[in-house]
Amino acid sequence: MKIISIETFTNEYIGLVRIRTDEGDEGWGQTSTYNSDITAQVVHRQVAPHILGLNGLDIEDLNREVLEREHKFPGTYLYRALCGLDTALWDIKAKRKNKSVCQLLGGESNSIPVYASSMQREISPEAEAERLLSLKEQHGYFAFKFRIGKECGHDVDQWPGRTEAIIKEVRKVLGDQVSLLVDANSAFTPSKAIEVGYMLQDFGVSHFEEPCPYWKPDWTREVKDALEIDVSGGEQDNDMRIWRHMIDTKVVDIVQPDVCYMGGVTRTLKVAKMANEANLPVTLHSANLSLVTLFSAHIMGSIENAGKYLEYSIEGLDYYPWQDNLFSPGFKIIDGHLQIGKKPGWGIEINPEWLTQSKYKVSYSGSRF
Questions:
Q1: Nearest 5°: CA angle at 42, between 38 and 43?
Q2: How does 286-322 read in b/e, with b if 16+ C-beta sit within 10 Å?
Q3: What is residue 204's predicted lDDT score, i.e. its pLDDT?
Q4: Cβ distance 186 to 236 under 8 Å?
Q5: DSSP 43
Q6: Cα distance between residue 275 and residue 283, in whole Å
Q7: CA distances for 146 relative to 157, 196, 224, 232, 235, angstroms
């Protein structure tokens, strides 16, 4: 089964990838969101030339070929582009076996428990608590994550007093029967993160994500060692050396790779295996409703050390209008669980109308763009 073409369909936010083979296979994947028009250039310049004409079933070998041939460019855009190749090939591989990707990986899950994940910091504590309560009543969510601190904030809050206020308000409004998680997005120094962590523990929050700048793992470990609450991190990381260090030196309690930042399913599974050997759970980062959440659900439904929940963004088209009308069927939440279909591959159809509105480019076997 030889790869004969790799196509990209992009706008600034989303990049979809289609791979075709000489045996009539067709697979769909996605590069990482944001600056996807730039990532598409990397697909055609630094990925496609190395894999066209090769066997599409040797996914791990193709990953290695790209990364070794481009070993002088080990940056995020290469991994973001590689994800498009990798996820499209997993779609093909599963379709050839007439299985979903989850089933191909050994899973049989029909649904995955999720936490309803807020992306907003500009929202007031009162408004955030009320919308989370509304979603609980509508969809049966039993776990929620909200934002504290200021992104990369150097111990500065989004506005004075917001962190303390939102922790108290969300717990008061939602009650004690739901699980609460928070994300600090690299907001704090260790001393401040520990101070905030004690407050989180007092209000029964169970999960403290990225308390310190992610590029300072020793800070995060200091926070983790000081608190009883689970500390998590890893969404930004794609280098296996960093992952090995993070896991071996116990920087976090929960590892959180992002499938698209990592470069696809293949490399994410390697991180999950390393974490499993260290008895660490995996809660994948999936912060929007593009294909990253679908990829993550199939992986979480198959790995041994899946965490308690999958991240599920609650931001609609008013916040992320670029999520609209990408594929069908869309995501469905029942009683706080994301439903996973068992149709072959990723189990979805890409919307033709969306494709016609995107920027198109193709690399064919024997050509270089």
A1: 115
A2: bbbbbbbbbbbbbbbbbbebbbbbbbbbbeeeeebeb
A3: 98
A4: no
A5: I
A6: 11
A7: 14, 14, 19, 14, 16
Long-range contacts of 129-136 (CB under 8 A, 24+ apart): 129/166, 129/169, 129/170, 129/172, 129/173, 129/174, 130/173, 131/314, 132/170, 132/173, 132/174, 132/314, 133/173, 133/174, 135/314, 136/174, 136/178
Averages of pLDDT over each 10 residues, the chain, 369 residues = 97 97 97 97 98 96 98 96 98 98 94 97 98 96 98 97 98 97 98 98 98 98 98 97 97 98 98 98 97 98 97 95 94 96 96 97 74
Q: Where are the domains of the chain?
A: 3-98+351-364, 102-339
The alpha carbon of 121 is separated from its chain's Cα centroid by a whole number of angstroms, namely 20
**pLDDT given for residue 366 in this prediction:** 59
3-state secondary structure of 334: strand
Q: Specify the CATH superfamily of domain 102-339.
A: Enolase-like C-terminal domain (3.20.20.120)
Q: What is the DSSP letter of 13?
A: S
Residue 141: per-residue pLDDT: 97
pTM of the predicted structure, to 2 decimals: 0.96
45: tokens are 């310049």
3-98+351-364: CATH superfamily: Enolase-like, N-terminal domain (3.30.390.10)
Looking from the CA of 288 toward its CB, the CA atoms found within 13 Å total 18
Cα–Cα distance measured from residue 214 to residue 362, given in angstroms and rounded to the nearest whole number:
36
The reported pLDDT for the residue numbered 68 is 97
Contact between 268 and 98 (Cβ < 8 Å) = no
DSSP 325: T
